[in-house]
Every structure is written in structure tokens, then in C-alpha cells.
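Researcher: We're teaching a course module on how sequence relates to structure. For the next exercise, students receive a sequence and then see the predicted structure as C-alpha cells, so they can try to spot secondary structure elements on their own. Here is the exercise chain.
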Amino acid sequence: MIRVLLVDDQPLLRSGFRALLDLENDIEVVAEAGDGLECLALARRHLPDIALIDIQMPVVDGIEATRRIAADPALAGVRVVILTNYGFDEYVFDALRAGAAGFLVKDIVPEDLLHAVRVAARGDALLAPSITRRLIDRYVAQPLRAVPGPGLEELTNREREAVVLVARGLSNDEIAAQMAISPLTAKTHVNRAMTKLRARDRAQLVILAYESGLVSPGSRP
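Model: And here is the predicted structure for the students to work with:
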């Protein structure tokens, strides 16, 4: 059973999401919150698998709530999926940097919402490679001061190569083709790199690669 916490300051929207999610046999909405502070309390109480969190909320906004969840060892199993009205905007990058696993636009069709919840719950990347490329093009490809990332020196040459390819927007299959290895081996390299760099997900791996200087802004395969 996938346990979900819904966080949005609009009760009507929460009710609609809850009605949809509760129809599924493998998904259960365990709690609802109207602001980020309430979200944190309920997350600690219920330990959901997924927290669907709106970006713009009173008291504590979605980005700060995400940051606090990501920083709390007791909530390490909670994966945050950001809800936004505006599609891919500047808030999304801040949310991903704060520790979100991905994001959804609120007018998402029901089938895609259910798929996204299941994808996030099993720990897979919620951002498709095409979205990763948009992340790179619109935000990461701005001048950044390189800051050495923790664990970077622990990467093997192959893991480092895999991280570079992830940061350039390649899927695991594309990484496998580029490195002349199997998709399973490519996935293993990516997962080990995420563990060493303490990246919660693929999106954070992209950001870490750019902020550490492992990949230069504007570079391409």
C-alpha cells in the first residue's frame, strides 16, 4: 500500500485528489494538511511514502517544507512530489534543490497522477529525460560557482561518467549505449553514484553534477 500525505491550502483541490487516490487498491491517503507546518507534523506522525505538496502555501511554503523533510533523518523514506499551478517555473528548480523527487502540474490528468505516485513510491526518477533537459536548459545552464560536492572523490571513473550523462539529460538506456554497457549496469552506476553523493533522486543528481563543477553549463554530449 502506497501511503500519501496531501498538502494544499485549497480544501476543494485536496478533496478531488483524495477522491481519485482513494479509489485505487494500492494507494491510501493517510492525512491532509493545509500548510507546510501542519505538513511536517503529519509527516512525522504518519511517515507516508509520498507527500504531494503545493509550492505556495501560508505559514511554511512548499519549498521550505520540502527542505525540512529532506533534512530530517526520521523522514528519509518520505518522497516529496511538488504540486504547481504554473508548470516548469523558477519555483520548481528551488524545490528540486530542496530535495523534491519531482513535480506535477495541478491540471494533470488522473491517469498521469496515479502513474506519478506509483513511480515516485518505488523510488524511480519522476522527471522524464525531456524534463531533465528543460531543467538543464532553463536553470542549471546559468553561471554557478562550483562547490565541491560531498562524496565526489568516492566515485569510480565509470560512475563519474554516468553522472555526467545523467546531467546531460540521458536516460539509462541512452547512458548504456553511450558507455557500451547494459542498461542494468548503467542503472547500477547511477544508483551507486546517487548513494555516494547522497542524492535523493535523479533530479538532485543533475543539480549536484552542475553545482560541483563536474559538468559545465551549456555542455552537451
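Model: If you want an answer key for the exercise: The radius of gyration is 17 Å. The chain has a mean pLDDT of 82.
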